[in-house]
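re: ur question from earlier - yeah i can do the single chain one, its not a big deal. heres the input i used so u can compare w yours
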Amino acid sequence: MGHIANSFEHLSEEQLEAHLDVGSYNGFELTEAVRPSFDLKVVPTQGFRRETYRDDQTGSTVPVLMGSATRSNLFETFMDLLDPLGTEVDVVLESSHQADSRQNGDMYREHIDLPVLKSILWDYEDLLLNDGCTGIAVLNPHQPLEVQFDEHKLLIVYGNDLKPFEQAFIDRDVYPSPEMKFITEAEHVHSSSQQYQQQFEELRMRLGMDENYG
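and the output i got, formated as tokens:
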């Protein structure tokens, strides 16, 4: 179990367990990776919104799409978002497993064929969906385009031309929702396990990432 945020502190064990056992809200299914705050300041929903990321160091801005999809639609949506990146990509694995601190968080693999990457990721669908300490980012090595599937199981796309990614969302019934809120915009709790930590290590090796790459 990950960090328990403030709205959970005064609950009985029964109240906490009951809250963590709730797997869907208004038909939106959560993965096992994360749960919203007890007071439900943000109720998870399906959709995406447009944003702008500003790099404080350079002052440059990049258009962003942030999306959320119900569990049964989530992994396929992530896979479809990878297609506009091109046929060869770079991959970053992100870990917040405490025992992985020696790895300094992120591991990088350059130049992998997208069909090969997708085949490997399908083998680790359970880990990528349900581990609240695992995230992945896939990048185009030749132009600034990036798709993140983060540890909150949000789908985040950075790039100047986001039309193909918007279409990929819409084709999966994930529609623009400018006023929507995401689970990260309020208190929430992450969940993981020893089993997922072992699967993360397996995925890292399958992707040919050096253990000490930081």
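The CA atoms of residues 26 and 45 lie 8 Å apart. not sure if urs matches, ping me
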